[in-house]
Amino acid sequence: MPHTDGSRDKAPQAARAAPSKFRGRNNTNTLARRVLVLDPVMAKASPSRRLGSVARTAPRTKRCTACKRLKPLSAFWRRAACADGRDRWCGECRGGYFRNWCAAHRAAYNTRQRAYYRRNRARLRAYNREYQRRRRRLMRSGRWKRRRAVG
Ligand SMILES: [Zn+2]
Predict the structure, then answer these.
(1) N or C: which end of the chain has fewer CB atoms below 10 A?
(2) Following CA atoms 19, 21, 27, 28 in sequence, which dihedral angle do they give, to the nearest 10 degrees?
(3) Which one, of 97, 57, 102, 53, lies nearest residue 77 by Cα?
(4) Are 88 and 71 in contact (CB under 8 A)?
(5) Which is nearest to 66 in space by CA: 28, 38, 94?
(6) Model's pTM, two decimal places?
(7) 59 C-alpha vs ligand 1 centroid, how far in Å?
(8) Position 74 in a domain
(9) CB count, 10 Å around CB of 86?
(10) Residue 75 lies in a domain
(11) Closest by alpha carbon to 75, among 53, 94, 55, 56?
């Protein structure tokens, strides 16, 4: 079969026009831009109004594809590669999977964490310093709330 026919010539064009799958595709700003394109009224609205419209119209719950339960969007970890910017698994399912993965790949996990710390040492140290300062201050005044255990 010759590869010079019309349908084949169009394929690379479509591939180039497709949006990148992994870079912030569905964060709120991207959704606001989409509203701008699709809605003639919102096209004239201010950016903050457009964002508000996204916040009102976006679904607030979704079903976890692992445990099949319907949960609020906030129960899902953020994930830029997913259509709505949230993971397909709920936090409980993803957390459990992640804990098991870490237990099974302890060495790989530690290596990765050390590399990350080395790359971001200054920023992480500054953050931890500030965090502990704030924690000590709150503990002294008895306002430090312990986080509940995960899971
Ligand atoms: Zn789940």
Answers:
(1) N
(2) 30
(3) 97
(4) no
(5) 94
(6) 0.51
(7) 17
(8) no
(9) 19
(10) no
(11) 94
Distance 91 CA to ligand 1 centre (A): 7
Can you name the residues that pair with 70 across neighbouring β-strands?
Answer: 63
Strand ranges inside the chain, DSSP E: 61-63, 70-72, 76-78, 86-90
Going by C-alpha positions, the residue among 61, 73, 63, 66 that lies closest to residue 96 is 66
Domain count, the chain: 2
pLDDT in tens, 13-54: 444 545 544 455 555 556 655 655 566 677 777 766 766 666
Residue 1: inside a domain: no
Ligand 1 centroid to 105 CA: how many Å? Answer: 22
d(CA 134, CA 17): 48
Ligand 1 mean position, distance from CA 64 (Å) = 5
Q: Containing domain of residue 45, as a range?
A: 14-58
Q: What is the pLDDT of residues 83-107, one digit of tens each?
A: 888 999 999 999 999 999 999 999 9
Ligand 1 centroid to residue 36 C-alpha, Å: 33
